[in-house]
C-alpha cells in the first residue's frame, strides 16, 4: 500500500472537520515533496474557503428565515399551528433537561 493510500484512509477515519483535513493535507504535501512550493493548500486559501462557507451558510439561513416569516405573516392559521408545535417542543426539552439535572445522567 502506498503512503498516499494510507494517508487518505487515515483522513477518512480520523478527521472530523474541514480545517483539520486541510491542515493534514497541507502537512502531508510538505512531507511528500519539499520542492513543491505552489500548492493550493496554504493558509490564505484556508481562510478564503472557511469565509466562503460561513458567508454561504449565513445567506442561506437568512433567506430561509425571511421566507418563513413572510409565509407566517401571510397565513396566520399556520402560524398558530407552528407556535403550538414550538411550545410543545420547548416543554419536552425542558422536561428532558430537568430529568438530566435531577438524575445527573445524560
Task: Write structural notes for this entry.
The model has no long low-confidence stretch (mean pLDDT 76). The protein starts with a helix and ends with a helix. With 106 residues, it is mainly alpha-helical. The relative contact order is 0.05. It contains 4 helices and no strands. Helix 3 crosses helix 4.
Number of strands: 0
SSE order, one letter for each helix or strand: HHHH
Radius of gyration: 23 Å
Q: Span between N and C termini?
A: 42 Å
Low-confidence stretches are none
In total, the number of domains comes to 3
Mass-distribution shape: elongated
Give the helix tally: 4
How much strand content do the residues show? under 5%
Mean pLDDT: 76
Alpha-beta classification: mainly alpha
Share of helical residues = over 70%
The largest pleated sheet is described as: none
